[in-house]
């Protein structure tokens, strides 16, 4: 089992399949990315390379893989990518994070390819505000895709980044929505990155304040599984849905870290906010998953105790699209 020098074990791999995104979320890529760039030009990991990475991690005890990005659905070969992960029988959970814009037309194919879980980014339930935050008038696509995912039995979660100036006033609407909608709605605390310093200063909201309010209103914490994501989840008997809180600035957030990341170009990132990624592309391309696993085992010793976001250090991370949130 993959274990670092602080005794943390890594059951969960977040694998970016592209660093290109078609949205222009104001907290992430306000200028957009992708215009004039092609997926081919960036040479993301191929299907065979993804299969090698997954075999290596599976042999080290990884049980859950999430495909992320950029926007993973921009990959024309997303279904073969999903199948390549699914081919490893040690991977018990296959998940994806998406902005949802292709969901209505593609979720059936993803489900057939073996997808178990989907996280859809919906930062506002108000169409105009959604447009304002993301640069796209496509809330309807995300919501109808979500509905279809639920109908297919895919475990669906919704991600909403808490933004003081843009969606914080919507908290009651979000709560009213999950009273009837059986999804886990995860409020993510805005993280400071290299590119969003000013935006962060005016928009960061502490998720722990919301948590205190929830506990006061009778929400109870769900027990975590060992491959669970970073959210602390809460349920309430009057609500069909749950609430998750992702609070990277809270004390001890990193103590329960169980995940590692690989970039679309095959770099191992020991933390979302690490100073650098370790380039494994050559080794991945060689296709020897045993050698790759041995290399990853060596690198894991360099994982530090925690990120230094509190001190304002954001490592090499200019935005989360580079690596996947
Ligand atoms: N394109 C996909 C999507 O929209 O979900 C996957 C990539 S996106 C980078 C993954 C998640 O990171 C999204 O839920 C997004 O809202 C979140 N995110 C991006 N930048 C963030 C930031 N600075 N702080 C907190 N969450 C952020």
From TrEMBL:
Residue sites binding S-adenosyl-L-methionine per the record: 27, 70, 121, 191
Function: Catalyzes the cyclization of GTP to (8S)-3',8-cyclo-7,8-dihydroguanosine 5'-triphosphate.
GO MF annotation, one: GTP 3',8'-cyclase activity
EC number: 4.1.99.22
Cofactor binding notes: Binds 2 [4Fe-4S] clusters. Binds 1 [4Fe-4S] cluster coordinated with 3 cysteines and an exchangeable S-adenosyl-L-methionine and 1 [4Fe-4S] cluster coordinated with 3 cysteines and the GTP-derived substrate.
Pfam families membership: Mob_synth_C, Radical_SAM
Keywords: 4Fe-4S, GTP-binding, Iron, Iron-sulfur, Lyase, Metal-binding, Molybdenum cofactor biosynthesis, Nucleotide-binding, S-adenosyl-L-methionine
Protein name, UniProt field: GTP 3',8-cyclase
PROSITE patterns the UniProt entry points to: RADICAL_SAM
Subunit-structure text: Monomer and homodimer.
Residues engaged in binding GTP: 14, 66, 97, 157, 259-261
Residue sites binding [4Fe-4S] cluster 2 per the record: 254, 257, 271
Lineage: Bacteria, Pseudomonadati, Pseudomonadota, Gammaproteobacteria, Cellvibrionales
Cross-referenced InterPro entries: Aldolase_TIM, Elp3/MiaA/NifB-like_rSAM, MoaA, MoaA-like, MoaA_twitch, MoCo_biosynth_MoaA/MoaC, rSAM, rSAM_sf
Sequence positions that bind [4Fe-4S] cluster 1: 21, 25, 28
Iron is among the record's keywords: yes
Swiss-Prot/TrEMBL cofactor(s): [4Fe-4S] cluster
Pathway membership, UniProt: Cofactor biosynthesis; molybdopterin biosynthesis
Family (UniProt): Belongs to the radical SAM superfamily. MoaA family.
Catalytic activity: GTP + AH2 + S-adenosyl-L-methionine = (8S)-3',8-cyclo-7,8-dihydroguanosine 5'-triphosphate + 5'-deoxyadenosine + L-methionine + A + H(+)
Record domain Radical SAM core: where: 5-231
HAMAP family (UniProt xref): MoaA_B (MF_01225_B)
């Amino acid at each position: 089992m993959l274990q670092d020098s602080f005794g943390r074990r890594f059951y969960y791999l977040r694998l970016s399949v592209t660093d290109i995104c078609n949205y222009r979320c104001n907290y992430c890529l306000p200028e957009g990315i992708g215009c004039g760039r092609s997926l081919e030009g960036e040479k993301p990991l191929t299907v065979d390379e993804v299969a090698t990475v997954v075999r290596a991690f599976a042999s080290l005890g990884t049980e859950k893989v999430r495909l992320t990005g950029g926007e993973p659905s921009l990959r024309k070969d997303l279904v073969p990518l999903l199948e390549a992960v699914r081919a490893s029988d040690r991977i018990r959970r296959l998940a994806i994070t998406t902005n949802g814009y292709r969901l209505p037309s593609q979720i059936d194919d993803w489900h057939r390819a073996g997808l178990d879980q989907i996280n859809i980014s919906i930062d506002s339930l108000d169409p105009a505000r959604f447009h304002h935050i993301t640069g796209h008038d496509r809330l309807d696509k995300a919501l109808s895709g979500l509905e279809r995912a639920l109908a297919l039995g895919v475990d669906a979660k919704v991600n909403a980044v808490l933004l003081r100036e843009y969606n914080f006033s919507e908290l009651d609407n979000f709560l009213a929505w999950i009273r009837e909608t059986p999804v886990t709605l995860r409020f993510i605390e805005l993280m400071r990155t290299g590119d969003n310093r000013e935006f962060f200063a005016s928009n960061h909201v502490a998720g722990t304040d919301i948590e205190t309010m929830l506990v006061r209103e009778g929400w109870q914490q769900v027990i975590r599984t060992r491959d669970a994501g970073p959210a602390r989840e809460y349920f309430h008997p009057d609500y069909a849905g749950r609430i998750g809180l992702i609070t990277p600035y809270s004390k001890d957030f990193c103590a329960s870290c169980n995940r590692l990341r690989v970039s679309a170009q095959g770099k191992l990132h020991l933390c979302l906010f690490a100073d650098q990624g370790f380039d494994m592309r050559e080794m991945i391309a060689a296709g020897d998953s045993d050698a790759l696993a041995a290399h990853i085992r060596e690198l894991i010793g360099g994982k530090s105790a925690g990120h230094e976001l509190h001190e304002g250090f954001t490592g090499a991370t200019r935005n989360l699209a580079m690596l996947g949130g």
